[in-house]
Amino acid sequence: MKMLFLSLACWLTLVQIIPAQAVPAEIQDPKERELLDYIASLNRKEPAFRPIALQRMLQEANLLSEKLKLPPPHPIKSADIVKYHISPPWFGLMPDTTPGLSAIDRARKGKITAKGAIETTNYSFGFSDGMFSVVNQLQPDEVGHYQEWIKISSAIGTNEAYQMATQWLAAVEVNVGLLEKKYGAQKRVEQAYIWNPPGSTNKSMLPIFTVSWGNDSTHYVAEVRVLGITKELLSLRVGEPTITRRRPLVISTVADFDKYLEAKTNLPAMQLHRLQTNTATLDSTNMPGSSK
Length: 292
Known about the structure:
Distance between the termini: 47 Å
Number of helices: 10
Number of domains: 2
Largest sheet: 10 strands, mixed
Order of helices and strands: HHHHEEHEEEEHHHEEEEEHEHE
Oligomer: single chain
Mean pLDDT: 84
Strand content: 25-35%
Strand order of the largest sheet: 12-1-4-5-6-10-9-8-7-13
């Protein structure tokens, strides 16, 4: 029997494009049609859902900012958000995991979480899989500083970078002990470098350290970047929900979603610039090379 949730990847773009229209006739399977129609019905509630999700993400961003001791503003207010992206309700769904349930019953018994990203003047905060996924410093023209930074000695080495990384992770309730137990063999502590001049074989070290745990360089279970000159946090990423003790950013159960939205209709609309890209764009950085 076809696994319906694995089929959804082929439909998600379609759901976003025609959320208010009927299920296309070419989809013949009744269960697939029922599920796709259910997805569309959830996503049609996005306008009412958006300010609620944004408020929840802002609350979490403030907690993260406090725990990581990030620079002002404190607290972050809606007026401090310069860009944001909120995914439609379906994309933040945490389905019920009870064995034996059909795909649509897993959805109906699930929970809606906030998924997306918010960007202030100096940091961005990304949320996925029901939790925060990245805190990223918006360093103005980081690459433009490289020629300057290669001339400045780092105030820390790899050992200090690792200590700072684990302290920051622990501060945002990542279970560092579990992280080391499961992924310690895949831990890397690397210092960045550039080829100077470009195209040469002359390697100049940068005062930037990356501490990561994970299977490969494309998907880290956890990753922290540190600027060794000032000991600033450049970015912190968590890609595995099981290693964090933080509660999911649950908005409502699916069953109570309509009632919850009705109860929150007095929330003010956020007149902000919406990002036209997905959360992954906020997460991207122009990374130099790195060396252990």
